[in-house]
Amino acid sequence: MAMTQNRWIGLVVCVLALVLLFVWIPLDVETGIVEKIRRQVEIGDALGPTVAGVFLLFGGVILAFVERPPSEPKPVDGQAIRFALLIVVYLGVCFLVMLVTGPAAVWVASQATGSDLEYRLLRDTVPWKYLGFLTGGTLAILGVISLAERRVSLKALIVAVAAVIAMIAIYDLPFDDLLLPPNGDF
Amino acid sequence: MGTLDYIWLGILAVFQGPEFVSLAGISISVTLAMIFFGFLLGVAVGATPGLAGPIAMAISLPILISIFGFTPDALLPVLGFLIGIMKGATIGGAVPAILFNTPGTPDAFMTTLDGHPMARRGLGGKALRVAHFSSVTGDTFSDIVLIICAPFLALLVEGYLDLPEKAALLILSMSFIAAAVGGSLAKGLISTGLGLLAAYVGTGQDFYPRLSIGNEALSEGFPLASTVLGVLIVGAVLHELALYWRRRDDGTAGTVMETEANQRLSLREIGRLMPYIGRSAVVGTMIGALPGIGSTLAATIGYTVGKRRYQKVRKDDALDFGEGVPEGVAATEAANSSVSGANLIPVLSLGIPGNAAAVFLILAAESIGGFTPGPSVFKFTTDQVNPELVIAFGLFTCMFLANLMNWTIGGVFMRAMAVMTRIPKQVLLPVVLLLTLTAIYVQETAMAAVWFTLGFGVLGYLMRVLAISPLPFVIAFILGGRLEDTSRQAFAATGGDPWFLVSSPVSIAFMALTAIVVVAAIRRGRTD
What we know:
The complex is a heterodimer of chains A (186) and B (528).
Chain A: H1 5-28, E1 34-37, E2 40-43, H2 47-66, H3 78-113, H4 119-122, H5 128-149, H6 154-171
Antiparallel strand pairs in A: 1-2
Helix pairs in contact in A: 1-2, 3-5, 5-6
Chain B: H1 3-15, E1 19-23, E2 26-29, H2 30-46, H3 53-68, H4 75-92, H5 94-100, H6 109-120, H7 124-160, H8 163-180, H9 185-200, H10 216-219, H11 224-246, H12 267-288, H13 295-313, H14 326-342, H15 344-350, H16 356-368, H17 387-416, H18 425-444, H19 447-465, H20 471-493, H21 505-527
Antiparallel strand pairs in B: 1-2
């Protein structure tokens, strides 16, 4: 029995389904598949996840042992996956930068002026509310374009700044009730 | 209140809403204006390789909700805008396919086979006109079928299906979608299982939020927008970026589009194309009415049916399908466009989304409230007005208005959008990525939603890499809660009968059909 890519996927899904059915659901769901509440039998919280687990197990078994596709899918391109994951990690870092830029700028300003400023109170005032989004957003677009093009260019920087300003114009300027990232977290 | 009264109220709701602008004394309602703007945006995104209607719908939704709020008055302007995008994107996808051999949307791939050779022969303008005419004809036919079928189907569902039958119907729909999407039953089931699992994390009736591993963020469940947009949009953008990164040396050369003088479409030519358009419209509508089967399959079958007919009537010295004949463009475009209207039949009659665009219409309706797509909408109450039914007829009016725009200004705007194909993908996609994440944050106002979206984006990307369609995942995630609630109610209503799924002839028939669908898909998988 040759270990094709589909067979590997099927086996991994089978293992995940078994862990879900026999470990995760029993340990992390308080009620069973059916429950007796006040002399009435009712469906418990475990039934839904069990159905999900059965779908996964059934799919995994068919993929691993039954289905014979006309051709195997293209081999997984490890480099492309690493590139995609790098983009996600990079975006995560940019959103963290977004999260800390505003409070850091307020801290610097309060140190410089000696006043007692707090970002939570300034999160919806100009220019403070734009600092995080402008910095993190520009870095995000500039970085992803540069990663894709394998070079950093002035054009990418201009596109990034223009796009972030356009997003501020779309989401923030016309509306009083919308909060740009990361201001809702403060 | 009779049926005609409801239809009239639906039309009035579109035309007599709040005024957007007054032109020469004629009041233009906000809904009408929103359909128009949505339509223009749809043509633009359809014509842009790497973008598609659902991406524009996802990004627009939080802005629309901010503008119109969460009141029932917001439903028609918001849904009208989304319908405009859906209709516009249908015709826009053919532009890069014909002019640059790059399909703007996956279903426009078959259009490249004859459209691009026509453009290379200097007939790009004519190819675009053929694509536009065929696309709009197919779409209009499909909408008429939707408007006739959806209410009847809904009345049948409400009249004959009780809770056990509805639970069985949901299981049949999910199994059918798993079997039909992507060509592999096993991968469809895996995608459905993952979607159900995601739907059940942090939910349930007990005080303890199930499957939350004691984590506070998980205990509230995954936000709908983060999950759907993460898997569908972020996953797709990551996939496109990774493909670009691997193949960035491949260039797509531009084409001289209009060297032949006569690019117009004569009545005689239209008459010659009609048999192909008619066949493809029927094929596309039938395929579109089944949930989960995409327009790509419709385009393939429409093209094959058209080719068979063409072989019978072709003169010996004439070009063949694949060499740049207008009949090939017409057969493909009529088929893939006639899917869009029919795809809403399962949404409006059963509440089951059949494609990504339908998912966003449901998402909008759920976010705003006051309209729950499904069989309960079509209750023709006579003593008092059923507002959901008025909205449903308002939606049908929106679809016809979008079609009217397609017929009148769609062709001109579509040809003008050729410029969109020149926007570099590697510049556009990062902007779309940040725009999507910002749209989600604005809606959820918590960074946790961004982390969830990125996580589901990775899942959506890996599913694409492993050739697992993300559509069954999204549909199962949306229907998971309803399946559980319906099953709980059916179980209680039958007095705790564990065999409630096979308690009546109709539910037995649905479960038998489920078994047939699964067994047939397994047999197909073994013999392919």
